[in-house]
Write the structure tokens for this entry.
Amino acid sequence: MTIALIAHDSKKELMVQFCTAYCRILSQHKLVATGTTGKMIAEATGLQVQRFLAGIQGGDQQIASRIACNEIDLLLFFRDPINAKPSEPNEMTLLRLCDVHNIPMATNIATAEVLIHGLERGDLDWRDIVHPQNS
């Protein structure tokens, strides 16, 4: 599976902690991320992460385009709904595209944990049917 990782500035450390805790599961999948988030995850965990541009430079839009082309199987987007800055990723575009293309997504750590455990159990294997190029 291809898993996209995005985090608002105030949630980047939480994303790193999440990836550290679930490193074993995540290491079995292809990871992509916006620039700064990907760099922090890779440095802290040793996971291989394909990094796009930083969110402010359009990295979230690069991920959105891959969602639209059915190249992402799961989105973990730790967002700050209270203190988000205008320059941070546009969550509405990402959320809408995930809904349109039936991409499972989490916008907080509680939902991310449910999805990561489901991924480990095989609950998301149906993505191989709609996205066979990952098989």
